[in-house]
Amino acid sequence: MNVAELPMILFTVIAQMCVGAFLVLGVVQTAGSLRFSAKAIDQVADPALLAIGPAMIFGLAVSMFHMHDVTHTFNVIRHVGSSWLSREILFGTGFAALGFLFAVVQLLKWGHPRLRQGLAVLTALVGLGLVYSMSMVYYSLVTVPAWHSWFVPLQFFATAIILGSLAIGTALVVTTLVHARQVARGLSAPDADSGRKVSLRERFTTHADPAVRDEVEALLAVSVRGIVITAFVAAAVLLVAIPLYLGGLTAVGGVALQSVEVYAGGLFVARLGLLALGAGLLAVFTYFIAAKPRENLGRLVVVLTTSFVLVFVAEVLGRALFYESMFRVGV
Amino acid sequence: MGVGFLEQDLRRRSFLKWSSAVAGSGALVGAALSFTGIPGVGSQKVAAAGDGMADADRTVWSACVVNCGSRCPIRLQIKDGTVARVLPDNTGDDTLFNRQIRACVRGRNMRQRIYSPDRIKAPLKRREGTERGDGQWDEISWDEAFDLFAEKLKYTIDTYGNEAIFKVYGSGVWNAHLGTSGGWGRLFNLLGGYLGYYSNYSYSQIGTITRFHYGNPDEQISNSFEDSIKHGRMLVLWGNNPQETRMSGGGLVFTSLEAAKTDGLKIVVVDPRHSDSVSLLADEWIAPRPGTDAALVAGLVHHLVSNNLHDQEFLDKYCIGFDEEHMPPGVPANASYRSYIEGKGPDGIEKTPEWASRITGVPTQVIKNFAFELAATKPVNIAQGWGPQRHANGENQARAIYLLSNVLGQVGIPGGGTGGREGYHWPLTQWFPDGENKVPVTISNFGWTDAIDRGPELTATKDGIRGADRLNVGIKFMLEYGGNMLASQHAENLKTREILRDQSKCEFICVVDNQFTGSAELADLVLPDTTTAERWDLAPSEYTGDMAYLIMCEKAIEPLYDSRPAYEMVTEISKRFGVQQEFTEGRDLEGWARYLHEEFNRKAVPGMPSFDEMKSVGVYRYVNPEGTTVALKSFRDDPAANPLATPSGKIEIFSAELYEMSQKWEFPGGDKGDRVTPLPEYVATWEGAEEAREPNAKYPIQLIGHHYKARTHSTYGNLTNLQEAHPQMVWLNHLDAADRGIADGDTVELFNDRGRVQIKAKVTPRIMPGVASLPQGAWMKVDAAGVDHGGSVNVLSRLHPAPVSKGNCQHTNLVQIKKV
Amino acid sequence: MYGFYFDQTLCNGCKACQIACKDKHDNPIGVNWRRVVEYTGGSWQVDGETARPNVFSYYTSMACNHCEDPICVTVCPTTAMTKREDGTVYVDQSKCVGCRYCEWACPYSAPQFNAQTGHMSKCDLCYDYRQTGQDPACVDACPARALDWGPIEELRAKYGDQNAFEPLPDPSITRPNLVIKPHRDAQPFGHGTGFIANRQEI
Ligand SMILES: Nc1nc2c(c(=O)[nH]1)N[C@H]1C(S)=C(S)[C@@H](COP(=O)(O)OP(=O)(O)OC[C@H]3O[C@@H](n4cnc5c(=O)[nH]c(N)nc54)[C@H](O)[C@@H]3O)O[C@H]1N2
Ligand SMILES: Nc1nc2c(c(=O)[nH]1)N[C@H]1C(S)=C(S)[C@@H](COP(=O)(O)OP(=O)(O)OC[C@H]3O[C@@H](n4cnc5c(=O)[nH]c(N)nc54)[C@H](O)[C@@H]3O)O[C@H]1N2
Ligand code: SF4
Ligand code: SF4
Ligand code: SF4
Ligand code: SF4
Ligand code: SF4
Ligand SMILES: [Mo]
Fold first, then answer.
1. What are the sequence ranges of the domains in chain C?
2. Residue B214's CB: how many other CB atoms inside 10 A?
3. B368-380 pLDDT, tens per residue?
4. Total H helices, total E strands in chain B
5. Fewest beta carbons less than 10 Å away: which of A74, A139, B746, B788?
């Protein structure tokens, strides 16, 4: 594996995952608000939101390793008019900042929900911009046939969706499990309606109110099923796209053939296998057991976490191959 | 146009007039003007005042003075007492006879060499109680060093006599007026002399055998490239690689490219390797197996003769030994060359192109076509390099190539040539006078390890001892000055090392260098010399064709660390023998440079500026007043009046002297190919092409070691910039590589009974199948198991001399190669 | 617009140009503003005892081509990679973050990362020498006289306008200010049968 590119591998995968997670979470919240109470949604979604921020910061920090003179860092946005790298960095910091802001206002329930929703939409749009500009950083290198391909944006968005959804799915079930344990230990949460100030810590625990609990369960079933279907579909698209992409590269010839060769080894097989396993088999399994989240909660946690980890590894491998396939025309 | 016109016309004119006359045809402007003291006049690109870096304190002329056969001026820019930049020649232009003498890749890296971490910083004495090569050193004062040297020298003379003193070959400061000698020989001579050597590593075989063929005690030059450009129709570079071995932009890189640009001058290169000369110059490339050139020539001559395309008239008039009608008296019948190729000689084999093709690997049709071409495209200058002769029985290889030009009748005519190395103008190297050596005995350049190992056993007819029937004593005191023979450039490095480690044999070894080389590691005393930049000298051109020059080398910086110019070392040592006055004649180094220049150079070359003028002129060019070099012209014009120095006065294709030697000389080892032949016939040798292809051969790859761009031998070989630019790799044909599962860039092991080398492979079609080349001169890096990781070809070469010259055969090696 | 002229029929791959550049700019190991590529191809026809070659090889010495469409400039996020008014492209050391993106982009490997400074570096066509009326160091170094430089229109008028030869990239990508006189065996771009034979040196 290309260790020198490890920072870039982690940065791109994690950033895309964060954007994807944010989007998925948005969908869960927006779509959920049509059927479920805010209480239930907040209970399920807020803790997950909190995970995105650090992940994004981690990704950005890691990407800094790629700059060899950090004292000049601020110069990197000077060339937004032309450089996709500038744009990526701009979108990246924008997404991180907005995401952070949104997380804060959402968790503390500051401002009008509309405003928060507006902020969420904006963050999501910037996130999309981030994934797009990220892909364009590579796509715009006309001198690297393996990168100058429709496949790059597709892959980056697919990564965002697959990893984002599985990350959120995992977060949802884990949160619910944690809550369930707390309830079991008798740590029932205070009633939010009693007017007592609810501490932040308490927000992570949840309602003992059976109505809310049922709501949460239903919400969980719908979201988790939606999530695994999304991941499944995105992974399927990716698995179909890969051979098309490699076929295209072969047709290009020249150094592109060297790039194709990179995809011949065991790592590539592993990547495909892990993806198929994580977003395929396990997803299908998840889909079925997610019908009864309460009964299957433990299993859901195990299966979804496994699925997430497998796919994360698959995407990291995929990204490593992606960097490995960097063969430039010329001398 | 005949050359006669040009020559006679020119001879009548004074040098100056002549220069400007030729300048009219676009040649000599700079040479004529450069002694006006204005560097750059005549240059197309006039040098600006602030040449190079803007804030240099001063810019002085210096030179790269290594044994690459060229020698280049460089301008050193000095800032705060250090060399800050290396600039190229800025005089002259791009015309044939006034060319700018642009330093090659190595000279341009001079700064790294001056400031290399390998510089020896102080005199070093091998630590008491350790063995040679153990690597334990004590820094000592100069006085201690001089005392030690003087004491050992005196002891040796008193105990063994002067014949036991030897100054081993070393060419690192080759040909500079002062640096070449360093003064060591002069000191030894003042003390009664020392054992000398004849010949040299460059052209031991051809330099020895030529006397029998052309009467010349050295090699016989051919016509110059300039002459081929002006008059030739074909130029054959036979084992000759000007693009890699004559890399100066003022020398043959330039003139051979001019030849390639010349319409109507076809260039053929004969080389088992697709050298850079092949890739740039050749209209046709012929690739024989190494060491089979004499067979190729026999096949060519057979085809010429059977089609009556040889120059019978020339052979009759100027040569003996070609056919039975022209033989010296007293030799058996059917001993002529013609009998040899017609199968009437003792071996009874007809040397048809088919026969030659089996030995050389060159397809029959290619041989036939080449023969026709040679005959049809005259005049042809066959210019051989020294690759073919650096082989077992390289003598015959070299002579065979001479012979081909004889058969074609090309000797002494414009556009033709002798078959020797391309001609050059080299009237002056006013070497520091070493005085007279009263020891008459000499060994061959290659014979010193033998002389150390088994000195008194060496005889004239067995080992080529000259000046006596045998050696009286082995070498006991050895000086290596400006050479890396002990560890790198000789042969069979691991065995050589063992011979040298035995302190009962050679009792004292002193190495004088400016880099801590592998040879220094084997010394008892290491003395730190300066580089050329740190002392005064004058450097003449060498094999640069018809344009010669002299370069001023000013002392640019103070000696680094505790180094000193050799001359100052010898001065101090001479004091200890009470011969200081005789040694110095009252001059310091600059004084000698001035003296030699004023007294000799200026008299030898009309128009040469004074010593002081030279400091600003930098480099002074002058051209062959005879016009372009046509070798042996006077012999061709009037052989009776100007006979050759052979017994017959003619070209001796059959040499009666060699015939006599063939009866007398002894070869007790009985190695295949160790024989003297009166004809330049093909001799299959030990570790030759035929042995390589024997079924189940243990060592099936012929390994040569071409002279490489990265280095001049081992000099410059330790510098990272050059290692980066030209990494050490073994050239291996892709077919041989495929057989062994080797890919480009893989580390491979080359091995034979003498050693093992591990190095990266350059897998390429640019070398013949069955042949590999490990560029010679890389610094050894031997691990605990005795495996060299530096890529030194002499770990694999053999300590066995060629039959007549007793010289080095380093291109004859068989190895096996495997992937590591 | 300045550019280079390079004569493949004269270049022997000696790399005096590379070393001269290195000496002038004090560039460390690994940083070569001028590099020389060996392009080799062909094979041997072995027939019993004999072997007949059909082999070619030629060198191309490359620096920065100060391109019309410098992809290095386009992609650089900091604007450190800049075109001067005279058309030459250089790295503004006060801006570069060392992201090495330009290095990925340039098909001539002209941008060379200097680990000692943490910045990108590259041929500036010897700006200071030109300012004082001197030729670039590499041009004056070449023992074979294979290099020339000047206003690209003048070079094209003098030497023609060819530059599409293997192993160089498609010139339409960056439109290099480069004129090449092809070696007799030079292979037109897109029709190469050889290979870059000294990868590790470039
Ligand atoms: N296998 C194989 N071996 C060969 C050859 C071959 O073709 N194949 N070629 C042979 C030939 S032709 C030759 S000429 C020899 C050359 O062999 P050498 O003459 O030994 O040449 P170098 O290895 O260059 O060693 C020159 C030494 O001089 C030192 N030197 C340089 N400048 C100075 C100075 O100013 N003062 C002092 N004191 N030292 C200085 C250098 O640092 C270097 O160590 O090698 C021979 N060896
Ligand atoms: N760059 C560089 N230049 C140098 C030197 C150096 O070390 N480096 N050394 C200098 C010195 S001192 C000398 S003596 C000269 C040496 O000059 P040469 O002796 O001419 O050089 P080599 O590289 O030994 O051989 C020349 C060519 O002969 C080929 N060859 C080898 N064996 C045979 C053979 O049997 N037949 C034929 N036809 N060709 C053969 C080799 O492939 C090579 O291309 O070079 C000088 N120039
Ligand atoms: S090595 Fe020879 S050609 Fe190169 S600079 Fe030195 S003298 Fe000139
Ligand atoms: S050669 Fe490369 S670095 Fe130079 S201008 Fe063109 S694209 Fe930029
Ligand atoms: S390394 Fe420097 S010059 Fe190159 S793209 Fe990055 S910031 Fe620009
Ligand atoms: S022009 Fe100057 S900076 Fe550019 S490659 Fe040549 S020497 Fe180096
Ligand atoms: S200096 Fe000239 S001949 Fe040597 S590699 Fe550079 S361009 Fe080619
Ligand atoms: Mo030599």
1. 2-44+53-67+124-201
2. 28
3. 999 999 999 999 9
4. 31, 27
5. A74
Domain that holds residue B739: 689-819
A62 chain-C contacts, CB cut-off 8 A: none
> Which residue reads 């969706």 in tokens?
A161
Domain boundaries, chain A: 3-324
Q: Touching check for C74 and chain A: CB below 8 Å?
A: yes
Query: Is the ipTM of this structure higher than 0.90?
Result: yes
Size of interface B-C (CB pairs under 8 A): 152
Give a yes or no: residue B62 inside a domain. no
CA of B106 to the centre of ligand 3 (A): 6
For domain C2-44+53-67+124-201, the CATH class is alpha beta
pLDDT at position B813 over 90: yes
Q: Which of B88, B254, B361 lies at the smallest CB-CB distance from C50? A: B361
Contact C109 A331 (CB under 8 A): yes
Task: Output the ligand 3 site: residues, CB below 6 A.
Answer: B 64, 66, 68, 70-72, 103-104, 106-107, 247-248, 712
Assign residue B153 the CATH number of its domain: 3.40.50.740
B152, B477 in Cβ contact below 8 A? yes
Residue B725's alpha-carbon distances to A301, B249, B716, C37, C56, in angstroms, are: 58, 19, 12, 11, 21
Q: Are residues B281 and B323 in the same domain?
A: yes
- What burial class does residue B666 get, using C-beta atoms within 10 Å of its C-beta: 0-12 exposed, 13-18 middle, 19+ buried? exposed
pTM: 0.93
C169 or A63, higher pLDDT: C169
**B620 belongs to a structural domain:** no
Clarify whether residues B657 and B699 are in a common domain. no
Q: Per-residue pLDDT averaged across B87-116, rounded? A: 97
Q: Express as a percent the part of chain B with pLDDT over 90.
A: 92
pLDDT of residue B39: 30
- Are B266 and B317 found together in one domain? yes
Distance separating alpha carbons of residues B225 and B628, to the nearest angstrom: 9
- Indicate if the pLDDT at residue B35 is higher than 50: no
CB B175 less than 6 A from any atom of ligand 1:
no
Q: Is B592 a member of any domain?
A: no
Cross-chain residue pair A331–C96, CB shorter than 8 Å: no
B646 and B777 in a common domain: no
The per-residue pLDDT for B505 is 97
**pLDDT attached to residue B37:** 28
Q: For residue B314, is it within any domain? A: yes
Task: Judge whether residue B236 has pLDDT over 70.
Answer: yes
Question: Which residues, 6 or more positions from B633, have their beta carbon under 8 angstroms from its beta carbon?
Answer: B3, B412, B413
